[in-house]
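yo

u said u wanted the structure for the complex thing, so here. seqs first:
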Amino acid sequence: MTLQDQIQQLAKDARDASRIMAQVPTTVKNHLLQQMADALVASGAALIEENARDLATGREKGLSEAMIDRLRLDEGRIRGMADGLHEVAELPDPVGEVTGMWRRPNGIQVGRMRIPLGVIGIIYESRPNVTADAAGLCLKSGNAVVLRGGSEAIHSNRAIAAILKKELAAMGLPAGALQLVSTTDRAAVTELLKQEQFIDLIIPRGGEGLIRFVSENSRIPVIKHYKGVCHTFVDADADLDMAEKICINAKVQRPGVCNAMETLLIHRDCAEAFVPRIARVLGALGVELRGCAETCRLAPAATPAQEEDWGAEYLDLILAVRVVDSLDAAISHIQEYSSLHTEVIVTRDYPNSQRFLREINSSVVMINASSRFSDGNQFGLGAEIGISTTKLHSFGPMGLEDLTTRKFIVFGDGQVRE
Amino acid sequence: MTLQDQIQQLAKDARDASRIMAQVPTTVKNHLLQQMADALVASGAALIEENARDLATGREKGLSEAMIDRLRLDEGRIRGMADGLHEVAELPDPVGEVTGMWRRPNGIQVGRMRIPLGVIGIIYESRPNVTADAAGLCLKSGNAVVLRGGSEAIHSNRAIAAILKKELAAMGLPAGALQLVSTTDRAAVTELLKQEQFIDLIIPRGGEGLIRFVSENSRIPVIKHYKGVCHTFVDADADLDMAEKICINAKVQRPGVCNAMETLLIHRDCAEAFVPRIARVLGALGVELRGCAETCRLAPAATPAQEEDWGAEYLDLILAVRVVDSLDAAISHIQEYSSLHTEVIVTRDYPNSQRFLREINSSVVMINASSRFSDGNQFGLGAEIGISTTKLHSFGPMGLEDLTTRKFIVFGDGQVRE
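structre next:
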């Protein structure tokens, strides 16, 4: 079989399996996820052995220690995958929910019922735990899933997928509902992205390069986010203690993630008071500031920001800082440079809080809270399958519900159209 | 300016205008649509004159009478466009609706607020009334719109767009919120489909060729439906009077539209009674039947169906008919050949009705009603911008709400993440 035929067959098998998975009762799906969790823990030693092969290859290829660490499976991480599956098992099942039902003048009743999307393709890099996490979320929401992990984790991914598939089969469910593309040939990704007949949604997870490749080559709808350039705006009359606490948390608590703050905007009317203060405290925490002229005047430790600093996703202890003349200027700056991820205003002014809330149309808009809350778990959606900064289908952190769609259902008693 | 620069500028202008449109109060948007409606009627004579140029060119080019008729504007059709705008003005505004708000253990409140998508591109063929209809729906939902109509209607479309833009400007709203691609150069479509930086959604409306071209060449998300192959399944114990009434309505009332029935499935247990009866009555109404062997045995007037008849969208007085052994066989047939548009069961059996409802995951599933109801207006969504048979974002008939998305909103009082 050619690679093309293989991938098409795999996608078709997933589509066929998805029709069965769409009908599986919640209790059965929950039991499946629990069995999968137990099987991962029980097979821990074998998993660690397969993972060691990936680690050895990674070292030969000269992967960085950070990359090797992301790749590593140990007992704790295997337990973490299992816990994740148990958590998803406990989440409410979105499938079958009827969201609204109304009667039309002719007596037909029209409603909308939540159904699985069908087949979801996940294309991801390095971390092998995504194999179990994504499978759990897709299966719980009644979908089939096609997984394509990074070549550096191929042995780990194959071992995890084999364990999970065995549990599907043991419960009499179609093994085709969980497919791993087990070749490391890159052409397989391109082929996968052509299977619009069988796959309903592609979610790429990884670096910007992977995501651009997927979205430029896919005929299947893609939900993605390229990067998070999160802004915090400290308004003229902000509580400066609160502003300091929020800024420290948003920048320093975990700088390498997409909901960390990358740009701080400060209203001119509080700049004299706030810029030196935040520069001092962030400086002490090892943060490098890149500021506008006014920022550099008020905080001499800051280096002058270049145009490319506005819009930069540092993912590091670096912060762009700009003093702005007004709320309008802050909104304009954000609209110009935002990645549509998360924006925060710190203010005591009610009208300003409401204007910011309405006029900023990023996927998450916050008043007086740290951007680090922008996360499916923190929002109470349960486990997160990803985050979307494209507006179609989902916008912001995505949970189980985002892996479903709604069909219309109509109850009649013989009505015909006049 | 090159064509590429022109299209990019137009898309960027629409994006800039969309930020203003997103904030326009409902009353102002409603007034705008009413002014537009009145302006169309007041400019009727000029519109008819411009339309005459398109009709003349169409005749020169040898367009069919059906095409010429679709292209024609007269007083009644101009009044129809105006009525459509008035209707949309009266629909509730989805923008700003908060769909759920909940408190997290740390005290932050998380909710979701409906916002416009931003910029919507509509690519359509021949009927010039789409220019006004689509503009009305996009503007009412707080979006900017980029319109690209067919070259055969270019003078009509330019005239309509100019009238509508004038009303935007007269109310102090940005004229960039309504853009018509006024060149007939086909390369403009390809350029438009590259503006993913500025356009949030593309809706193609027209023949399957247009829709395939758009979806294969777009980097922007596309919502579409290729065709409607709607099935009606007459179950073993259906009320045959009801079944007859529904089948006649679904096939004959307006055969040229996507929600007309194209395939009729009949349970073997009622085939002896129903096949000759429905063949007689549909035959008398001029419907040609293409049947399976059993259908042809029971209704000698039917011609044998070929494999391509299952899955055919005739849009004509032709019907594929198949006798099936069971509900399962009906469901399997539909899953195999469905276009995911609309499927109907006629039955008196409660468990069968529920199985059909759950197991068929087309965008509309009906019990005991004509597929001709599958329509945004009939469902009570108000005017329809289109129908989606892709599952992402919207599935089924689409109204104003489908031109919006939801952002997360968070109210805190200084919370930071532990």
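The first helix of chain B runs from residue 3 to 21. The first strand of chain B starts at residue 98 and ends at 103.
cya
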